[in-house]
Amino acid sequence: MVRVLCGDGQSPPAEYPGDVDIRRLIADPSNVLWVDICDPEDENGVHPEALRILRDVFEFHPLAIEDALIESHVPKVDDWGSYLYIVLHAVHFERGKEQLETRELDLFVGPNYLVTYRTEAVRALEQQWRITQRDARHTRRGVDYLLYELCDAIATDYLPVMDAMDEAVDLLQDEVFERTDAHLVERIFRLKRAVLDLRRVLSPQREVLNKLSRGDFAVIDNKDRVYFRDVYDHFVRLVDLNESLRDVVSGVLDTYLSVAANRTNAIMKTLTIVSLMFLPLTFITGFFGMNFFGGSIELTFETNHWLFFLASMLLMIGMPLAMLLYIRRRGWW
Fold it and tell me: Which first-to-last residue range defines the signal peptide (predicted)?
């Protein structure tokens, strides 16, 4: 899918289909053009529509086109003289699954055009596209200001993800004290991996905005660099939040291990006490059951038979009870 948004700053931008003559629109320097390409790869792993526009219409460098069509890059910015090639990442967090999904967005920024390429939906881009359509002010200030608004929308879209991850951490903190099982520790490790994946995206993306706010690029006006510095501050704050979230997740894991160890110790303590209570019983029955010198001991006096039996039973019952009372008084159980 290819769509084109073109505005001259005087009236709201008009949307054109993908088969419009893009070269004619770019030729007018008063126009600000936004070309959005969403082109999933075909069965041969090729992006035919994106390749046609990037190579034949805009005539970008083959290396830049190759970078855009290969979806495996960290956020970066390359200066090709008359245009910039920028890689940004949007994120999506699935609640309940504790999984972070990154969606790459490739941008080509020229004197009066912005080309965005992606293989799947990016929520921040869709929102900014609708906002730009409604008002001429978004194209009046030039393509670099339009780039700023898109970067700001992507940075703003990180905040719900951070809130969702923070809520997931709070739920795990409550569940740690209620139960310990393999499913819970698996969720903790999934969330920890999501936080680390987010850190791998945020740090280089922060540096991209730092370069846009301080670098000397021909397509970015000096007076508009302050806007990119504002987005850079957003990413600095997001990096700090991510570091705090990583520490909290590590604390949840440590708490889980501590709670699991305490419960294991409690179980072992109970088993040890039960074994200790049966130890004198085992000694008594084993001692009187030995027959080194013939058969088992037999009582010859009828009157003492039941008396000896009752005394043995009282001893076997009383000793565990006395041991249990002693353990309770010492606070061992």
Answer: none
